[in-house]
Amino acid sequence: MADFLGMMKQAAQLQSKMKEMQSELDRIEVEGISGGGLVNVRMSAKMEVRAVKIDPSLLNPDEVGVLEDLLVSALADAHRKAEAAMQDKMKTLTGGLSLPPGLGL
Fold this sequence. Notes:
The protein is 53% helix and 17% strand. By secondary structure, the protein is of the alpha+beta class. The two termini are 30 Å apart. A 3-stranded antiparallel sheet has the order 1-2-3. It is built from 2 helices and 3 strands, in the order αβββα. The chain has a single domain, classed as Nucleoid-associated protein YbaB-like domain (Ybab, Chain: A), CATH 3.30.1310.10. It is found in: Cytoplasm, Nucleoid. Its main location: cytoplasm. Belongs to the YbaB/EbfC family. Homodimer.
């Protein structure tokens, strides 16, 4: 019975730490950049896009495809950085064990 109570206490502590981690991840922001800075995407470590900046020189109706490609690239860059930030924070929670890719909070 004592083992069960100990496990329940550990589960409650882990749940509390996870809530704290969610809050921390919401405060962490990363920036994805493409086109040498022509497109910037700011994203939280919870993968929420916060802002998109597009250089006005890209707003040419004849080159929509270029803008689309740069936007996809900037989003992918931000996503990679956010995933790395989340993994770093999770290592502190899990005592150094890393989570498999894609297994976020």
